[in-house]
Amino acid sequence: MMTTRNNGLVIQNLTFTKRKVTFLKNIQLQAQPGELVLLCGASGSGKSTLAAILSGYYPLHGGKLQVEELTWEGQNLADFSDKERLRQIAVSFQNARLSFCMNTLREELIFILENLLVPPSQMPQIIARYVEIHQLESYLDQPFSSLSGGELQRAAFCCLDIMDPGCYVLDEPFSNLDDDAIEFLQGLIQQRLAEGKTFLVIDHRLDLWQDAQRFYVLENANLTSVTDFYSSTTQDLFFKAGLLGKSEPTPKIKSTTSPLLEAKDLTIHFHSSQGEKIILQDASFSFPKEKLIALCGQSGCGKSTLFKAILGQCSYQGTITYEDKDLKKVKPSTFFGEIGLVFQDPSLQFVTNRVLDEVLVGTSKEEEKRGRDLLEHYKLLNDKSRSPWTLSQGEQRRLAVICLLLHGQKLLLVDEPTYGQDWQNAAKLMAQLQDLCRHGVTCCFTSHDRRLVEAYADIELRMENKKVSVVS
Predict the structure, then answer these.
(1) Hey, what CATH class is 259-471 in?
(2) Stretch (H or E) spanning 309
(3) Helices 393-405 and 365-377 meet at what angle, rounded to 10?
(4) Rounded distance between C-alpha atoms, residue 153 and residue 19, angstroms
(5) Greatest mean pLDDT among 284-298, 353-367, 439-453
(6) Which residues have CB under 8 Å from 421's CB, separation 6+?
(7) Range name among 17-26, 122-131, 323-332 with the lowest pLDDT average
(8) Do 9-241 and 259-471 have matching folds?
(9) What does residue 94 show for φ and ψ, rounded to 5 degrees?
C-alpha cells in the first residue's frame, strides 16, 4: 500500500477503461516536489493514456475513470478549474506537432499568457525571458510547419515552461533531439527540480533517466514501482517489459557496392521569415546498394528536407541520380513504386480508417497473408480493426514501416523509425530493415539514437556544415 502524503502528485487505485478495454488497472503512483519520476513501459502499454487523464482529456473525451484518489498538493484534480489545473499540471503531447494552436512560437506564447490572464503590457518581457532561457530567439516568428521534429519539441517544452506549473508531465520529450539538445534540456530540468518542481517523464530511453528518484513500469495495465535502477530484479523487469534487449544484431556488411542513388554538387535552400536558409551547399554523397545507411545530424539540420528533395517534393540545384537516371528529368510518379518514405510524423500518411486496410492498400491477394503476419510480428494484429489515428505514436510508427515492407521498393527512406518504440520493438524494426538490405533493398534511416546507429548501420552519413560526409 502506498503511503499518501498531502503534497505533490498522488494517484491511488486508478482504473481506466475505454471500448471495453482496460488500459490502466488499480494504478498507484506518487511524485513529490523536487522529484524526477520515470514512467516507462512497452509501446502502446497506456503511458500516454495516463498523461491524458492527468491533463483532463480523459474521461471528458471518452472512457470510464474510477479512482480512489487523484490529487495535487492535497487537492482533488477534479476540483480545479481548467485554468487552475493548467497552472498546476502541464502535460506535453507525445507528438509535438499537435501541441500548438497558433502558427508561430511568438503567437503560441502570447496565446498561453492570454489564457493565464497575464496583462498584455507584461507579455513581451516574459516571452523574451523564456525564449532566451530556451535559446529559441531565432525561432520566434518561424511557422511551426517549417520546423523540424526536434525544434518543435524544444518549442513545446518552452510553452510548458512559460506556464510555470508545479508539475511537468513530459511524454517522450527527447525523441527527436540530438545529444547536445538533450543535454541542454536535461540541464533546464535539473534547474526546475532545484526550484521544487515535479517531473513525471514518460520515456523508453532508460539510459537518459538513470538519475530519477523512482521508476514505474507499466505492463498489462498494471504499474510496478522500483527504486533501485541497477538491481537484477529491476533489470529483469525492464527486459520483460521490452525496455531492454539481450539479442545481438546480425553482422554488418562492409563490402563495397555501387551507388543506387548519388548526389553531386547538391544545394538545397529556402526562404523563411528569418531570411534564406541553406540546408546543403555543393554537397556530394551516395547511397550504396543493399546497405543500411544512417543519416545523422543535429535537430533541424535538414535530414527530412533531404528526403523531400529525393522524392521531388522540394527544389534543389545540382543533380540527384537514381540508377543513373537524373531525377529532375523524370516525373516523380515514375519512382513512387521504387522509392518509399516513412514520414517523421506517420499519422500524416494514413489513408484508411482501419489498421488492416492500411496495410493492405495496393497489395495483392498473395501479399495479404504476409501483411497479417507482419501485424502479428509487430504486436498489432489485435488492433487490426482500430483506426490508425487512435494508435499510440510508437504503434503508428510500426504500422507505417509495415506498410512499406509489403510493396517491394528498392529504396526505403525512413525518418526516425524507432521514435516512440521500446527497445525490443525498436530492435525488431531495425532487424527487419537490416534483413531487407540483405535481400536487395537499400535503406536510409534518420536517427538521434546512437545505440541503434552503432548497432545496425552499415554506413553512417552525417549532415553538418551544409555538407554530407561518411563517418569512418
Answers:
(1) alpha beta
(2) helix 303-310
(3) 150
(4) 31
(5) 284-298
(6) 43, 204, 394, 397, 398, 429
(7) 323-332
(8) yes
(9) -65, -40
Q: CA 15, CA 25: separation in Å to the nearest integer?
A: 4
What pLDDT shows up at residue 66?
96
Lateral strand order in the sheet of 317-322: 275-288, 259-272, 317-322, 325-326
Closest residue by Cα to residue 340 from 403, 411, 399, 441: 411
- Element containing residue 158 per DSSP (H, E): helix 149-161
CB 69 within 8 A of CB 12: yes
Residue 93 CA to residue 100 CA, distance in Å, equals: 10
Grid cell locating 44: 502502446
- pTM for the model stands at 0.76
Cell of 64: 470510464
From 96, 86, 51, 82, select the one nearest 166 (Cα to Cα).
86
Ordered by start, the domain boundaries in the chain are 9-241, 259-471
Task: For the chain, give the longest Cα–Cα distance.
Answer: 69
Q: Give the pLDDT band (50/70/90) at residue 1.
A: very low
Sequence-distant (6+) residues with CB within 8 A of 360 are 367, 368, 371
**Does the pLDDT value for residue 159 go beyond 60?**
yes
Nearest to 14 by CA among 77, 89, 74, 88: 77
Helix (H, G, I), strand (E, B) or coil at 280: strand
Residue 258: φ, ψ to 5°: -75, 155
Q: Which CATH class is domain 9-241?
A: alpha beta
Q: Identify the bridge partners of residue 37 per DSSP, sorted by sequence position.
A: 200, 214
Q: Give the residue-averaged pLDDT of 102-123.
A: 96
C-alpha cell at position 259: 551507388
Q: Region 346-361: what's the mean pLDDT?
A: 89
Asked if residues 189 and 182 have their Cβ atoms less than 8 Å apart, the reply is no
The Cα–Cα gap between 385 and 354 comes to 5
